[in-house]
């Protein structure tokens, strides 16, 4: 049962959210998606990410900015996705659809058994998802190199292949959005993910693979790009 007003409950160190965000958070909290926001985990140009509680567990609450997000860049990406061909170039619609698309991609990732956060809820511009980590959040690959880089790379390629078989391309893979959780890769940040039938899906897959292989080459593990690409797409 909620005993505090949503204005009181969702105050943060940096002030109070806008009214639309307050209402959306309150609706998600009332539905049981999370109990209470706690500490900011990441503050970015397009979204703010918080750690929240849900019973005895932690969850992640990702809030897309309605005012400051680069909606023109978002529109350039999302308009190519056949799921959003109807979308017009309006800020509010684009940002709400951007969050919805990440929710849909996370659901597809889960169905394909990809190692990614399980999505708990989505409403408007806010996504609630599984917390990846133990006592502390699992660090991104850029901040914690694996003890066995070759094995870790193979683990990443296995996840990319599962996602491909599930009909999705991540579209934004790098050492920033692959977590190193107990020496296993976890793919996060699916907002740029798209379907295989999207016209530029192969281009995005190639970019993902080149980004990953370039990172591992810098730490001494080199793989042939063409062989890796063929391994992911099979005989297509």
Helices and strands, with pairings:
Elements: H1 6-9, E1 11-12, E2 15-16, H2 19-30, E3 36-43, E4 47-54, E5 57-64, H3 71-78, H4 91-111, E6 119-123, E7 126-130, H5 149-165, E8 168-169, E9 178-181, E10 184-187, E11 194-195, H6 201-218, H7 225-233
Helix pairs in contact: 3-4, 5-6, 5-7
Strand fraction: 15-25%
| Count of individual helical segments | 7
CATH superfamily of the largest domain: Phosphorylase Kinase, domain 1
Number of domains: 2
Average per-residue pLDDT, rounded, comes to 89
Rg (C-alpha, Å): 18 Å
The termini sit apart by: 54 Å
The biggest sheet, with number of strands, parallel, antiparallel or mixed sense and barrel status, is: 5 strands, antiparallel
Structural class: alpha+beta
Task: Briefly note the CATH topology name of the largest domain.
Answer: Phosphorylase Kinase, domain 1
Q: How do the SSEs run, as a string of H and E?
A: HEEHEEEHHEEHEEEEHH
- Fraction in helix: 25-40%
- CATH class membership of the largest domain: Alpha Beta
CATH architectural type of the largest domain: 2-Layer Sandwich
- Please tally the β strands and state the result: 11
């Amino acid at each position: 049962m909620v005993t505090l007003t949503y204005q009181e409950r969702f105050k943060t160190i940096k002030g109070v959210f806008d009214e639309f965000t307050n209402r959306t958070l309150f609706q998600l909290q009332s539905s049981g998606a999370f109990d209470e926001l706690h500490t900011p985990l990441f503050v970015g140009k397009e979204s703010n990410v918080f750690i929240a509680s849900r019973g005895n567990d932690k969850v992640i609450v990702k809030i897309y900015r309605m005012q400051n997000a680069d909606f023109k860049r978002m529109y350039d990406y999302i308009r190519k996705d056949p799921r959003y061909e109807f979308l017009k170039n309006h800020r509010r619609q684009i940002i709400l659809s951007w969050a919805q698309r990440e929710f849909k991609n996370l659901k597809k990732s889960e169905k394909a058994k990809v190692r990614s956060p399980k999505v708990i809820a989505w409403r408007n511009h806010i996504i609630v998802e599984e917390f990846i980590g133990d006592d502390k959040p699992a660090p991104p690959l850029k901040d914690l190199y694996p003890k066995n880089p070759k094995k870790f790379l193979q683990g990443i390629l296995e996840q990319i292949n599962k996602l491909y078989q599930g009909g999705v391309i991540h579209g934004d893979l790098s050492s920033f959005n692959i977590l190193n959780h107990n020496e296993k890769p976890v793919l996060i940040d699916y907002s740029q993910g798209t379907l295989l039938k999207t016209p530029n899906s192969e281009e995005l897959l190639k970019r993902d693979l080149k980004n990953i292989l370039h990172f591992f080459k810098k730490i001494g593990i080199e793989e042939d790009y063409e062989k890796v690409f063929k391994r992911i797409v099979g005989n297509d």
